[in-house]
Amino acid sequence: MKLFTVFVAILLAVYLLVVSGVLNSTKVRETFRLPLPEVPERSLLLPDLVVTKPKELYIRNVGEKKTIRFSTTFINFGKGPLEIIGHTDKKSNMTYAAQYIGEESGPGLYQDVGSFVFHPEHDHWHLESYVYYQLLAFKDGQLLAETEKKSFCIFDEIKQTSDLENVPTSRFYSSNCDRQIQGMSVGWSDTYLARFEGQELDVTGIPDGRYIFRSIINPERSIMEDNYDNNTADTVIAITGNRLEVEE
User: Fold this and answer.
1) Most CB within 10 Å of its CB: which of 8, 155, 184, 226?
2) Chain centroid, CA 5 distance in Å
3) Contact predicate 185/167, CB 8 Å
4) Closest CA to 243 of 6, 14, 58
5) How many CA atoms lie within 13 A of 104 on its CB side?
6) Contact present, 82 and 223 (Cβ < 8 Å)
7) Residue ranges of the domains in the chain?
8) pLDDT, one tens digit for every residue, the chain (248 residues)
9) What are the DSSP E strand ranges found in 104-208?
10) At 108, is the secondary structure helix, strand, or coil?
11) Calpha distance 248→50 (Å, rounded)
12) Which of 65, 88, 82, 60 is nearest to 194 (CA)?
């Protein structure tokens, strides 16, 4: 009887040790079960490219070809600059372009936006597929004529405002238009005049009438922006023979 009591006591002690170990293990696991960290939204300093109505719009005839010549101005009203970095692959001789986007507290990020292409008529490098132009019927918006998606050299030309944050007092991105870096600072603008090569839309055979001339910046939305709703500017025009009038 005494041996049986001792045996039961030993079994009870073992049981208590096992239970205690399990509970302690559970407590340890609960102690180190840390909550998942909250990942804040990244405060990216995005550009906001706004295209304005052209200040120059006129008809030009060369032989039997009739074109609309036009200027293009866009402004960066965003929180950060538009900055494009080029990287040349020596094997393929291609210069790829990436947008660098800064952030308020962090390293920023890069995004592929296409490539830089050499523009022989301008003798410098352009970012491909940057702007696009259309002629639409005034009544129903039918597309009547369009350009290809055109390349562009990007730099700080004129400071338009100082009322935004992060506006530099002087030009930061130069007009060198090389394939290393191009960009536009906050509050600055860039303009292509109507006389520049490529600033034309073929309207040969288009009859006289009222039309909508449409300018579109960043047509493929390959460039990250804070707002895409202001990337289009429509201008109502009237064509009579070789005369073009802009309607307010």
Assistant:
1) 184
2) 83
3) yes
4) 58
5) 6
6) yes
7) 1-34, 49-247
8) 544 454 445 444 544 444 444 444 444 333 344 455 454 577 899 999 999 999 999 999 999 999 999 999 999 999 999 999 999 888 888 899 999 999 988 889 999 999 999 888 778 899 999 999 999 999 999 999 999 998 889 999 999 999 999 999 999 999 888 989 999 999 999 999 999 988 999 999 999 999 999 999 999 999 999 999 999 999 999 999 999 999 97
9) 109-119, 124-137, 143-146, 150-152, 158-159, 181-184, 188-192, 200-202
10) coil
11) 19
12) 60
Output the DSSP codes for 233-247.
EEEEEEEETTEEEEE
Q: What is the DSSP string of 179-244?
A: SSEEEE-TTEEEEE-TTSTT-EEE-TTPPSEEEEEEEEESTT--S--S-STTSEEEEEEEEETTEE
What is the spatial distance between Cα 79 and Cα 166, in angstroms, rounded to a whole number? 7
Query: How many other CB atoms are there within 10 angstroms of residue 3's CB atom?
Result: 7
Largest CA distance in the chain: 125
Strands (DSSP E) contained in 63-123 are 65-70, 72-76, 82-89, 94-101, 109-119
For residue 93, give both structure tokens: 């001789």
Tokens 């920023």, residue located: 108
Q: Alpha-carbon distance 81 to 46, whole Å?
A: 7
Q: Could you tell me which residues come within 8 angstroms of residue 71 by beta carbon, excluding any fewer than 6 positions away?
A: 54, 55, 56, 57, 191, 192, 193, 194, 199
